[in-house]
Design a protein that fits this description.
Blueprint: H1 3-6, E1 31-37, H2 44-55, H3 59-72, E2 74-81, H4 82-98, E3 104-109
Antiparallel strand pairs: 1-2, 1-3
Helix pairs in contact: 2-3
Bound molecules: L-tyrosinamide (TYC).
Residues 36-40, 42-44, 47, 66, 69-70, 103 line the site of L-tyrosinamide.
Length: 120
């Protein structure tokens, strides 16, 4: 008897045969942009340091992002799955708070269809 005839039935020994799905479907996680916001008080060096240490950018990249925020109001620090984006946002704001700087960080969905700003 072929294997197929035993699929999802008991075989002649009473063992249950299963078909094994060899295709596992995985969905890409939705991604979130982490944005830094300009203010008049946070020192430039502090913002650069935050971008290097929390977002893993080089000094040159970090200075470029910091200056973009300084001149245009906001800048992209990175794009991550929700939990990582949220963790980085909290790390930025906790570090800013403990150093008494007003630096703000927000996250927003990467796809504009669902353009809800998340701050908490
Ligand atoms: N505007 C700040 C200053 O002149 C620098 C700054 C840059 C602050 C980026 C916040 O996200 C920021 N000291």
């Amino acid at each position: 008897m072929s294997k197929h005839q035993f699929d999802n039935e008991n075989d002649r020994y009473g063992n249950i045969a299963f078909e094994i799905e060899d295709e596992v479907k995985v969905k890409k996680p939705s991604m979130y942009r982490v944005l830094l916001h300009n203010d008049d008080y946070t020192p430039m060096d502090f913002v650069t340091y935050i971008i290097m240490t929390i977002f893993g950018k080089t000094r040159e990249e970090s200075e470029y992002i910091m200056l973009t925020v300084h001149t245009s109001g906001t800048g992209l620090a990175g794009i991550y799955p929700f939990d990582i984006a949220q963790t980085k946002r909290i790390q930025v704001e906790q570090s800013a708070q403990s150093n008494e700087h007003p630096l703000k960080c927000t996250i927003e969905p990467e796809d504009d269809e669902n353009d809800r700003k998340i701050t908490d």
